[in-house]
Amino acid sequence: MSADGRPHVVLGLCSFTHDSAAALLVDGALAGFVEEERLSAVKHTRAYPARAVEWLLGRAGITADEVTEVAYNFHPLRYLDALPSVLPLLASAEGRQRALPRAAGFAKVAARTLRRTIGLGMMFPYARVRSFQHHRTHQMYAFAASGWDRAALLVVDSLGETQTTTVAVGRQDDPGRPGVRTLRALHDPASLGYVYGAVTEHLGWRRGDEEGTVMALAAFGDPARFRSLFTCAVPVTATGFTLDSAYFLPRVLSSTYARLSARFAAETCPPRDPREPVEQVHRDLAAALQERTETVMLHLARLAVARTGIRRLCLGGGVATNCVAVGRIIEAGIADEVFVPPAPGDAGTAIGAALIAHVEAGARPVTGVAGTCYLGPSFPDPALDLSAWPGLTELPIPGDPAGFLAEQLASGRIVGLFQGGVEAGPRALGNRSILASPLNPGVVERLNATVKFREPFRPFAPMIPAELAGEYFTLGQAAPYMSMASKVTDLARERIGAVVHANGTARLQTVTKDANPFVHTLLHAFAARTGVPVLINTSLNVKGRPICGTPAMALECLASSGLDALLLEGRWITK
What is the reported pTM? Predict the structure, then answer.
């Protein structure tokens, strides 16, 4: 409660950059979180999350005038910290061409961010608007979501004001009052996210969207071909890593400036047009990039554990979505346990910003953050009007829905599942999923070609009851948010080879009865029919579109893809 007895209401925002999202804390309780794309159907939207905010306020039964604080996930003045980094560029002819545009770009973004925060104040006239350093919001969210009382924190992304990598310590001296403190920071141009995005674009995929495609492609390449190049271009140091500007040009905050040098292209391959076929050189370049990313991430994880003296590690930032690198950290035994929150990218910083504002206000303890991922809108009894999709039909479900769906999947159907609240983060975790049996011959090919409309080399993730995971996967810890790649057992290779990628791993999701009762029951029902407690789980969308957050989006996905049917809040929709 505020001093005047009113609830302490904090609206956390990620907006105006990419992956816009909003979170709401009411007296410390997380009332909800949703990414704007799940409601607007515009993937990675940078627009102000108007639909998300409207839903949050409506759900809590409050108005904009009742918001106490608005917490924003970037600090405008911190962008000016980049200005001194311009001076070394003046020493070379090539650097001088970028020095002034770099300085002007960071100054421009600082001014633009300041204007945006002023605009937020006008939208919420009775709220205090606060801006927080970007990496701090990542740290706070990752730590609070873990539920641990203390942890080492490692955030790695492309750019947060000027920071690109931070090591921090998280402590919860009092229950529900998480705190984070940065111990070490690397600044631009030393950016692992910048490197991965630049090479993703060079290989013909969209930077900031399709890095996962490159990670998948890497399994088919030979990293030795370009290993020495990446070792030179991204050398590790005692405090982290650096970049060689001979390969990765200094960042200018404008898309008109290249990120890679002519030398990089000369020593690897020309930029690939997205319409061109994928050649072996592209596979090998992806493999070398992924290998170097894993090497650097392992190095940073060791530094984080050594610097903090804590053997529980939380990861955040865009690079933390690289599930293969996360799996390597776990496999190496660097920490006793590794945690990645459900929304490790920028969207999740809306929660982190709100948490910082609430904790610093000295208000009630935080609740509802740890162990939760189904935080968005739900539609428990939607009124379905199928007139916009004349090819769709609603049919009654005989018996219990979980048993019925298990039977459909066992018979070879590919089915969308829409239930409960929208998941936080980039992975579908059983509430907005496409499910299929891993036992069906050609299921991966069919999913990629006719349902998802994506590259044939892309793998699919398995979901399994947590209590049975050790029979099929060697990860050795919970993976509730599909953020970790695990090696597999001989039983998995024998029975569910469809979900084992070319590198011998699978990005699994472990499901507990408490976290998702329906999916947990479904997996056991499927096992009763097939002997295998594993289903393929991929997001309810097609390539280029966001995960379906609303019934209308889900029905459109069914109508326009190769899905056989959709189980929408217990209602069976088929073609």
Answer: 0.96
Report the C-alpha gap between 270 and 491 in whole angstroms.
Answer: 42
Cα 87 to Cα 512: distance, rounded to the nearest angstrom: 54
CA distances, 375 to each of 30, 34, 291, 542, 545 (Å): 9, 7, 34, 22, 20
Interatomic CA distance for residues 342 and 168, integer angstroms = 19
Q: Does the structure show a pLDDT above 80 at 94?
A: no
Half-sphere exposure of 458 (CA within 13 A, CB side): 18
The helix/strand/coil state of 207 is coil
Instruction: Report d(CA 456, CA 448) in Å as an integer.
Output: 6
> What would the mean pLDDT of 438-454 be, rounded to a whole number?
95
Task: With CA atoms as reference, report the closest residue to 559 among 431, 383, 392, 386.
Answer: 392
Q: Is 91 exposed, middle or buried (0-12, 13-18, 19+ CB in 10 A)?
A: exposed
Q: Write the CA distances from 494 to 413, 471, 499, 504, integer angstroms.
A: 22, 12, 11, 12
Q: What is the 3-state secondary structure (H, E, C) of 308-350?
A: HCCCEEEEECHHHHCHHHHHHHHHCCCCCEEECCCCCCHHHHH
- Other beta carbons less than 10 A from residue 282's beta carbon: 21
Residues 506, 164, 343, 326, Cα dihedral to 10°: 20
Q: Which residues pair with 174 in a beta bridge?
A: none
Q: How many helices (H) and strands (E) does the chain have?
A: 16, 21
The edge-to-edge listing of strands for the beta sheet with 128-131 is 29-35, 21-26, 9-14, 69-72, 128-131
pLDDT in tens, 414-428: 999 999 999 999 999
C-alpha–C-alpha distance, residues 358 and 132, integer Å = 12
DSSP SS3 for 573: strand
Distance (Å) of CA 44 to CA 17, 215, 518, 541:
9, 19, 29, 14
Across the beta sheet with 432-436, what order do the strands follow?
A: 393-395, 571-574, 565-568, 415-418, 432-436, 535-539, 461-465, 505-511, 484-487
Dist CA 300 CA 295 (whole Å): 9
